[in-house]
From TrEMBL:
Keywords recorded for this protein, A-Z: Cell junction, Cell membrane, Gap junction, Membrane, Transmembrane, Transmembrane helix
Domain Connexin N-terminal: 42-75
PANTHER family assigned: CONNEXIN (PTHR11984), GAP JUNCTION BETA-7 PROTEIN (PTHR11984:SF26)
A single GO molecular function term of this UniProt record: gap junction channel activity
Protein name, as recorded: Gap junction protein
Function: One gap junction consists of a cluster of closely packed pairs of transmembrane channels, the connexons, through which materials of low MW diffuse from one cell to a neighboring cell.
Lineage, opening ranks: Eukaryota, Metazoa, Chordata, Craniata, Vertebrata
Stretch forming the signal peptide: none
Gene3D superfamilies documented for this protein: Gap junction channel protein cysteine-rich domain
Subcellular location: Cell junction, Gap junction; Cell membrane
Ranges annotated as spanning the membrane: 20-39, 77-97, 118-143, 178-203
Membrane topology, from the record: Multi-pass membrane protein
Keyword Transmembrane helix set for record: yes
């Protein structure tokens, strides 16, 4: 697939993000998307062809591969990238709604279309919660589907049509495990950044509204 749309989306969201949000965009773009396109795709490109079992029984290698790798690491990583990036569309759509509203009324209704306040603040917070939720769900999926964050060198398979328990060997297990750890580390970093930004915005605007109400009360 072409990743151009995702790159354009991240670039567009960057204009309406806080400082922490811009760091998140940089991490996703440089350490996840570019690493995926430049390196990771090639490592898992021929994983089924390079999966070997010490028996030539027709169908045995296929069923063993499907059992130990129900979903390809690289496809699950791609799906994760798409899912954690799409909540940012909510912010882009909200800004587009503001632009359309100003055009409809033919006057300026907002100090700045991309300023995070009011309804846009709620949309931004929802997008952060969704991104964090998707990150956690996919980390859980990786852990459950592959019995932990590891790529074994050897797996034993006794599923039909294999005639008995056979040894199956995974190609480049160390290289794949390094990139799997890298994936988990960057995903965890993104969770920390999302939670930090969420806490920052809630704290900032709570203080802001408290001060406003305090001033009004004493006036």
């Amino acid at each position: 697939m072409s990743w151009g749309f995702l790159c354009d989306l991240l670039s567009g969201v960057n204009k309406y993000s806080t400082g922490i949000g811009r760091i998140w965009v940089a991490v996703v773009f440089i350490f996840r998307l570019l690493v995926y396109i430049a390196v990771a795709e090639n490592i898992w490109k021929y994983e089924l062809d390079e999966f070997e079992c010490n028996v030539k029984q027709p169908g045995c290698e296929n069923v063993c591969f499907d059992h130990f790798f129900p979903v390809s690491h690289i496809r699950l990583w791609a799906l994760q990238l798409i899912m954690v990036s799409t909540p940012s569309l909510l912010v882009v759509f909200h800004v587009a709604y503001r632009e359309n509203r100003e055009k409809h009324h033919n006057r300026k209704l907002y100090k700045s279309l991309g300023e995070i306040d009011g309804g846009l603040l709620c949309t931004y917070l929802i997008s952060l919660v969704l991104k964090t939720g998707f990150e956690i769900v996919f980390l859980f999926l990786f852990y459950k589907l592959y019995n932990g964050f590891k790529v074994p060198r050897l797996v034993k398979c006794d599923i039909r049509p294999c005639p008995n328990t056979v040894d199956c060997y995974i190609s480049k297990p160390t290289e794949k495990m390094i990139f799997l750890y890298f994936l988990v580390a960057t995903s965890a970093l993104c969770i920390v950044l999302n939670l930090s930004e969420l806490s920052y915005l809630i704290f900032k605007y709570s203080i802001k509204y408290y001060l406003k109400s305090y001033v009004k009360k004493h006036q």
